[in-house]
User: Fold this.
Amino acid sequence: MQAGGGLARRIARWTIVIFLIFGLIVFAVEWMFKQQVSQITDQINYHLDQQNRLQKMGEDYRSTVSNFRAYLAYDRDDFLTAARTDRDQFRSELEDYRARSNHSTSMAAQLDSLVRQSEEYFSYFPAIQQMKQEDNQAEIERLSGTTTVLVSAVNEEMEQMITNERDEVTMLMQKSQQLNSLVLFIPLVFILLGLIAALLLIRYLRELIVKPVIQMESAVRRISQGEHIQLDHRPNGDEIGGLMDGINHMSDQLQERHQELEKHLRHMAEQHDELEAQNEEILVQQHEQEVILAKLTDRERQLQLINSYQEKLTGFTTMSEFLENSLRALLQATYHDALMLVIQSEQEASVFHTIHAIGWPGYMEQPDGTGLFGPALQVMEEKRPVVRSRVLSGEERGIHLGYERADDHYYPLCDDQMRIIGFLLLTSYGSAAVQIHDKMLTEGLINQFGMAYQAQLAGEERLKQSIRLEELNAELEVEKLMIRQQRDAIQEIIDSLHEGLVLCDREGTVSFSNEQVSRVLPDLRTGASIMALGDYLDTHSVHAENLGAQIQQAIEGAANDWKTQFSLRGRDGSVYYLELYINTITGADMKDYYLLVFRDRTEEEQADQMKNEFVSIVSHELRTPLASILGFVEILLHREVKPEKSRKYMETIHREANRLSNLISDFLDLQRMESGKQNYTRVPFDLRQVVHDVARQWDGKQEHHIQIQLPESACFVEGDTDRITQVMHNLISNAVKYSPGQPQIDVRIIDGGADWIAEVQDYGLGIPDEARDKMFGKFYRVDNSDRRQIGGTGLGLAIVREIVRDLGGEVYFDSRLGEGSTFAVRLPKFLVPQLDNKVVIIEDDDNLSGLIRATFEEQQYDILSLNTAEAAILSLERSEKPPLLCIVDIQLSGSRSGWDFISILKGREASRHVPVIVSSALDQPGDFAEKPNEKYLQKPFTVERMKELGIALIQRGTHTTDVVIAGHNEQVIQSALKKNGLHAVQMQVNEDFISVDLLGEED
Amino acid sequence: MSSFEILIAEDEPALRFLLLETLEDEGYKVTEAEDGGLAKEKLAEQSYDLIILDYMMPEATGIEVCEWLRGSGSVNEDKPIILLTAKAQEKDRMRAEQAGVTLYISKPFSPLQLLDAVEELLSGTQRDN
Assistant:
């Protein structure tokens, strides 16, 4: 490594130095040229200045000359003065020029000559002036020749000098141009030189650094692969050289280290061989020890096996688990190969079962139930172990390969009373395995097994019994639950019965009663005597009927189908109507029980009473007029009666017959209304009209005067005019009837906000307080002889109430006894809808109306649905603008038809053009007359078609007066129109409809 | 012609008229009462040979009038009473008998038969005065 900076720094330094020198040279050259150029520019400026001065001098000189000559010519002093001034100026300029001049000697000589000659010329001035003053013209003439020469000489001299100066400038300009071109060229040369220098530097660097680095990289890689490398030495001592040397050094060191390691390895191998020899020796010793140890642990192992066997004699829940575990452990502990447990059947001594077998080929497990023979029989009989050596069977050989013989050891098994119960067969293949001293041990172990087997057998039995018990218990629980549920259900059924139930035995001891009983009767606890009930019944029954004794008799078997009805004052004081019957039931204990059933027939009784009462009233009401009629008729038939009397009788008969007739029709009306079978038509109408008409009818009757007070404008309500008329009739007739001697009756309509209220006020008898609640009841008449004279059916107000209720209103009254009564009927106002620019559907079938409505609503039209022609006509009359389109059903629920509406619509100027679709079929089938109902069902257009037609009609504009009617038979439609008083101006038959231009009724 | 006096109590004007006509034609002297209350008043005032009562009347029913009369100690206490009724149920007839009605006639009735019955009831009696 060299002192004074590395290679990189050196390269950097040198590069900087070179570029500095290079830059300096460029700068210096550039500066030099710049200097020269400015020098030349200065010179040019100088020469241009001088040239200018010379020209000025020339002008001044010439001016001097011309002024002086002018002086001479005109002899005016002002010219002389100007000449003098110009001369002085020339002189000073000349002096200035000479001072600035640095010209060559030739130029200096030239200048000197100029000065001399000009001064010479000026020197003549005073003389000439003198001469002028002396007016020596001749002398002046003479001298003028000399001066003229001088003047031209000076001029020439000056011209010469200007030319000189100009040449100098031209020369300098050329020089400057050359220099400028040089200044442009030189930098180019330097840039080229710089590029060449940079290229050379890169070449040098590549040679110096990159190549050695690549060389070193490959060297290092090879070293890492284990090669020994020697790189060329670099003469100059730079870093690369150093690095190369370093690599070389490293390579050398590695070589050395490797050799050392190899040497070390060889040494290690030698040591290893030595150790191995020692190890082998130790292994031999260890093996010897293990053999000794094995001999020692063999015994211990057997003890362990025995121990494990003994553990497995207890603690198993099932027999099969016990046998599998304990016998397998026994086999291991006694070093046998196969085992078989055979147990004598408990039922039959000659039958034996193989309970368990281990290590035997399947088929060799002795079939169940066979008798014993050979050693097996021997062991059973002798009750001591039997050993038998035998040759292996073929199948056994298949399992226990390599053995020829087997030893079968039969050990007897005894129970706790030393009775033999079976035997255990242990087999070992290769007889040497079992040693003599183990025989005692084996016998001991087998005895233990025998006892454990007994214990397990007993345990198993207990287990079975406990499982059985649990099962039985669960079954019982289920049954108990079911019984409980059944009992609850039965209890619920019994409690929900309307009948009260009491169960007792022959001795009259109550064993059961349900809730219903305690509602009417005192609590009958289980164990109470039925006689207590009998006593209670006797003391509380409304009519003393000796019920206790009757029950007693029934129970004693006197009457089986005994049944009685009685009424009982209940604990709440009200009367209960009860029926009691007794059923005999045979109980599970074969004894007779008596079920007392109390049936509550209070409601039944009440209904019965009401029915009877009603029948009685109706019968009374009907019979009374009938009695008069029949009586008089009989007299007339069987007696001679004077004519005037006869007439009186007839009048009575007539009146009473009328009464009967009214009664019957009122009664039937009310019956129909109450059963909801009354059909009301709902049309809007002016209540004033109805009230007025009815009141007029009564005015003057029975000397009564009816005062009518009605609002100015119409009072529209919706309802059935006939029925409202009936209401008004009933109210006014009551007013007339119950105000004898008080002829004034007021009838009026009051605006009640949302309702119209029709009032009928009389000043008659009035209604007593106790009658108020019954006023609207059936057949009720205030019970008073004054009133009896008045007559009436007693149904009028009941009918009024039914009608008003059905039409959504209410009826009420206000009265003071002796002062009169006011009855009022309140009916909701009918708000007349506006038809303005709407699609109006006049259809009494709400479903169909809704369908059409929905279809047109899709098209964003305003829709108005109306049920009756009356409502439509009213709306038409009260709307400002006509509707857009009318869809009209002909048959409507009111008394007026669709034709009525169409006629009015077409008769009004404002609505004449409104298009109409008739939605009913007019072109009816032949049997139409016999099937009037179908008329309502047949709609000739589908809703969709109706929509199409409707939109087309609306869009056709306002000039049309079309009515569109389904069908294609002109005559049929013509006659239908005629029948309804309509006249078709024009008819046009289309595919499925006829378009008619109608003339309506004029207003 | 005897001039027996008969009281009729009937609230229905048409029937009262029928009774009046029927009896007067036969020469009976008839007094009318328009309800049970008025009937009692008349019975308290004067003696009659026969009393005809309607069952259903305001103020007091025919039965009530009958019951009242039978225990009243008045001059009319033991006079024959005919009860006219539109209630034709057996129960009503029993009540009438218990109340002391002499004859029970259900409506509608034959005026001629009624006359026969009246004649028969009065046949055994002589006009007091």
